[in-house]
Amino acid sequence: MTDKPTPMRAPLVPPRSYKLGDTYWIKRLNTLLRFADEDLGVLTDDAWEELLDQLYESIYGAKRDRANKGDIFNKTANRKSIREAQRGLAHAIKKGADEYGDVRLELAKQRMGIGHDESLGFYHLLESDHLPTTIYGTFAILLEASCIRRSDAHNCANDKCGRYFVPLRKVPEKKPAYCSTKCANRMAAIRYRKAHGPKLKARERDRSKKRYMKKSLSRNRSLR
Ligand SMILES: [Zn+2]
Prior knowledge:
The protein is mainly alpha-helical and about 220 residues long. The chain contains 6 helices and 4 strands. A hairpin with an 8-residue loop joins β3 (about 155) and β4. The radius of gyration is 26 Å and the shape is elongated. The structure holds zinc ion (ZN). Zinc ion (ZN) binds near residues 161, 163, 178, 179 and 183.
């Protein structure tokens, strides 16, 4: 008895959609960068499923159907394979480059599919029962499609975050890069307090002094 092949779905990256604009690919790439740094041990079951949804979107550029048991991603994504993919990815990102600056990732057996679509023309897709292989392949494709350089990746300047990511727009030199508006707002609030702190405090002192004077004045008046 032979396994019936699962029907082909959308390609990993249809070559012509490279034109979708750099930020589209950077967003998908950032999902993988975030995943490489995620603490998997603290994830609740709900958070775990959400992580799988995000990984699916990063790989296929499409929404995951959690109920589809025949989907090769749903079949192969489990705690063990996800952990292995994370280890491999984190190693490639943080210290994988050799003396030439190249990164090498070990792949498992793959199948190649050749698909056709009237609007796209022919495209190919690589499929593997080994999820880390699929994720490494996606990582390489997204790096290329994003048209970024190593120097475009930053650590979030929010000291409480520090996440490694690629900003959607070029960050001017010497300007801090933030991974989210939440991180940008937090640091803006801290900067504001630092710059205006003494002034704000003096104004507050002034105000309470005035309040006190007003109160004691009216008290004095009522005593009269
Ligand atoms: Zn951040």
